[in-house]
Design goal:
This protein is mainly alpha-helical and 268 residues long. Helices cover 60% and strands 5% of the residues. It comes from Microbotryum intermedium.
Amino acid sequence: MSQQAIKQAGEVSAANLQKLRSKVTAAEQARAEAEAIAAASESRRRSEAAEYCSGLSRISETFRSLRSSSHPFDVCFKFEAEGVDIWESSSFLSSKSGYFKDLFESGFAETTKEAREVDRCNQPTHLVRISDESSQAFQAIFTWLRTGQMQFDWLGTASTLTAHDSQNGATSAASIYLLAHYLQLSQLVEITLDRVDNYLTPRNVFVELARDWRGKPTEMKDKLLAYAVANWNEVKKSDNLAPMLTEVAENPERGAAFLELMRLVIGL
């Protein structure tokens, strides 16, 4: 090959290499721009979500403060274990829930609840004692009945069932689902079933499963199990597994869902 041909071949190779480098550089730049756009979008989404949650927290706090005293309400829900009283309107609750309608009309016949009349601003006041539900769940549901807004706990930072249901302004979807089902709030039941997947993480699914599901409706538990099975590789690595197993061991009635999960992942 002549020197001229070699020179031309070298020039062609250099030109091709330069084109290739340009393409690579352009691709890297496009990828970097796409990543920057995605990062900005995610940052904006997180900011909007935080602002939305903050707004819901303010709404929840406003209603929590309003319901801390009797006026203008006529029914007090007393959570003696927590030292918390929640006030609401019996007529309002009756208009929203068949459960409350039957409760107030029946004279509080259920053994876990009782009623009494007291002279408070010349208005009849009913007392409902609650011993098996958290005040946080009732606060969240009462706020939803008033505003249509519900803030679920999606962070999954709690390591026990009790802590999971005491986060400020947010309550777990499973807690809301079970209480909404009990209170005959079918729309809220459907909302929790529809949204729960958005709030589950490999860490908090254990907390949601560690409940006494005996005799309870199964739709929520089935969704929790489906999530845990589909994400088992991440779920089994969760640092929440050990403390939840300890909690279940101390409260065997909460272990049924764990046994069901083990059967599903093992394939029995």
